[in-house]
Design goal:
Shape: globular
Number of helices: 8
Radius of gyration: 16 Å
Oligomer: single chain
Distance between the termini: 14 Å
Strand content: 5-15%
Number of strands: 5
Length: 210
């Protein structure tokens, strides 16, 4: 059976990412694609428990502890959900993956890049997303949108300087893997973003079926 494709969606908080993940799932299902829709941290029973710790804990979490918990959840996610789905021939759409660790724990928290790279090599040495869609907005725009959330999580409560660093780390990561990333302006009207996203997914779909 033909291996499915692994597509990840990234962006700072407030980039509109989750809206477009759901839209992409419906778009691909409409084209007959069997898929698994999932998220990080999360996606498994263990992952969701770790997500609660990472997003809801009121006290301090050391930056490296945070990174290790992210990768622990990711390893279980790969074992239980992502890997089996790809083998079944399903496409996997994932709301955040390892690029988020380089952006948030690396850029945002200051965890050394070489340490994150070592974890990446350990946890998924032979797997990278086939496509990563980065929704790019400024820290100011992202924070303006997050301000409307009634109960922001640990990350959403961070200051503008944090998200400036996170965004910069995402853009750096994209420069390192330009063939894997597509960057979409998250400030454009939703219909325009989804039109561009639909064209990219159609191209990927055509190449996969060829």
């Amino acid at each position: 059976m033909k291996r499915g494709l692994f597509i990840t969606f990234e962006g700072i908080d407030g980039a509109g990412k989750s809206t477009h993940v759901a839209w992409s799932a419906e778009f691909l299902r409409g084209h007959g694609i069997a898929l698994t829709l999932t998220r990080e941290p999360g996606g498994t029973v263990l992952g969701e428990r770790l997500r609660e710790i990472l997003l809801a804990t009121e006290g301090p979490i050391h930056a490296e502890t945070e990174a290790l918990l992210m990768f622990a959840a990711r390893r279980q996610h790969l074992e239980e959900v992502i890997g089996p789905a790809l083998v079944r021939g399903e496409w996997v759409l994932c709301d955040r993956f390892t690029d988020a660790s380089f952006a948030y724990q690396g850029g945002g928290r200051g965890v050394e890049k070489k340490k994150l790279a070592a974890l990446e090599t350990w946890v998924h040495p032979h797997l990278q997303p086939d496509l990563t869609v980065l929704f790019d907005v400024s820290a100011q725009v992202g924070q303006g949108r997050v301000a409307r959330i009634k109960s922001p999580d640990r990350f959403e409560r961070e200051n503008a300087a944090f998200f400036v660093r996170v965004r910069a780390a995402y853009l750096e990561r994209m420069k390192e893997s330009p063939d894997r990333f597509v960057c979409l302006d998250g400030t454009r009207p939703i219909a325009d973003i989804q039109d561009e996203l639909g064209k990219k997914l159609t191209m990927v779909l055509s190449n996969w079926k060829a």
